[in-house]
Write a structure and sequence with these properties.
alpha/beta; Isopropylmalate Dehydrogenase; 2 domains; two-stranded antiparallel sheet; 12 helices; 14 strands; globular
């Protein structure tokens, strides 16, 4: 497997295919199932070379569970990807997925469907290994299967999610979580719709004290930069109010006039086409209708609910501000259906497709 590798597939947008690492996430959830099903998908393989980061035994089990015609082949490390070729096989119908083992062996014994500290540690180890490989240029990007935050806590890991780990390992201070819907029937913006979140995994009660003009302005800039990257020449960015009715002239709070409006004005003065603060219920509707290309939400559910409601399987989580490409599906570990072989891989496929695009700086409207 060379990166880039020449492809004869006419469906591929470019003549070279990037290597995209798929981390298995929490082994007690649906992560391994969606990883193997996505990795075997013809459409995904037409635009990238998938490589798993996890434990081969766990992925073998997931392939059997989901009846996925996929052979898992352990490789020693990411350096081995340079000249990797699958072992000869008489079964021409079965694809091969290389797997870098990045966690301890006892993860294969973790029961499915519950919180386990070992699963939290393994998810962390796989993410860090993939991130370091991306930073070293050994892979083109990362698509992460979901992890469980309670399992992280059980493992003694003081991180609320992927985003904060990625920022830490990459050594960046300005980063943000964004949900992105590619262009299509759901949203009217020709380059898709992104919603970035000013605060991440935290309680609603803590949101007001975490907001600052500097942080909001940073996220406006990150949104503008991302939309330009996917082909939007002059992104139109709308900024959500925190309070209902945008505070109703201070009756419901003053964050709009004290924090949000100054951030919008600062970015307008730097040449960014941005507007706000606008009541979130009105802004998200207008954005879906094509009036805005990007939205800056003040907290997690303010942005997540709207995009998941209209495009759950297509919404892709992208971490902005990193020196590497990282995407993930918008769903969680789904312990309630884990181990049943019914989890849909569509979110994982969409996320890996976007990762491949971003790694090649290809206009997202081409998929």
């Amino acid at each position: 497997m060379q990166n880039p590798a020449t492809s004869n597939n006419s469906d591929a947008e470019c003549s070279t295919l990037p290597i995209i690492a798929l981390t298995m996430g929490d082994v007690a959830g649906i992560g391994p199932e969606v990883v193997v099903r996505a990795a075997a998908h013809t459409q995904l393989r037409s635009i990238c070379h998938p490589v798993a980061v996890g434990h081969p035994d766990v992925l073998h089990r997931a392939a059997r569970l989901t009846s996925t015609p996929l052979r898992i082949e352990e490789i020693s490390d990411f350096d081995a990807l340079t000249d990797w070729q699958p072992s000869p096989s008489s079964d021409t119908e079965t694809q091969t997925l290389p797997c870098v083992k990045a966690c301890v062996d006892d993860v294969a014994d973790i029961p499915i469907g519950g919180i386990d500290a070992r699963a939290g540690q393994a998810a962390y180890d796989c993410l860090v290994a993939a991130t370091q490989a991306a930073l070293a240029g050994k892979i083109a990007g990362i698509t992460t299967a979901p992890l469980n935050k309670a399992a992280f806590r059980a493992a003694g890991l003081d991180y609320p999610g992927h985003t904060e780990i990625l920022g830490d390992v990459c050594g960046v201070d300005e980063f943000a979580m964004m949900l992105y819907l590619p262009p299509g029937d759901i949203v009217k913006s020709p380059k898709g719709l992104g919603v970035v979140h000013t605060t991440l995994h935290t309680s609603i009660a803590s949101v007001p004290k975490l907001l600052s003009t500097k942080l909001i302005a940073s996220n406006i800039r990150l949104m503008d930069s991302f939309m330009r990257r996917v082909g939007c020449d002059v992104p139109r960015v709308g900024v959500c109010a925190l309070n209902p009715h945008a505070g109703e002239e201070g009756l419901f709070g003053d964050e709009e006039s004290r924090l949000i409006a100054p951030a919008v004005e600062r970015c307008q003065q730097s040449g960014i086409s941005t507007a706000g603060p606008i009541p979130a219920d009105a802004l998200l509707r207008r954005a879906v209708g094509g009036e805005f290309d990007g939205v800056v939400a003040m907290y997690h559910d303010q942005g997540h609910i709207a995009l998941k409601l209209i495009g759950f399987d297509r919404a892709v989580n992208i971490t902005l501000g990193l020196p590497i490409v990282r995407t993930s599906p918008s769903h969680g570990t789904a312990f309630d259906i884990a181990g049943q072989g019914v989890a849909s891989p569509r979110g994982m496929i969409e996320a890996a497709k976007i990762a491949a695009q971003l790694s090649l700086s290809v206009d997202c409207s081409t998929l």
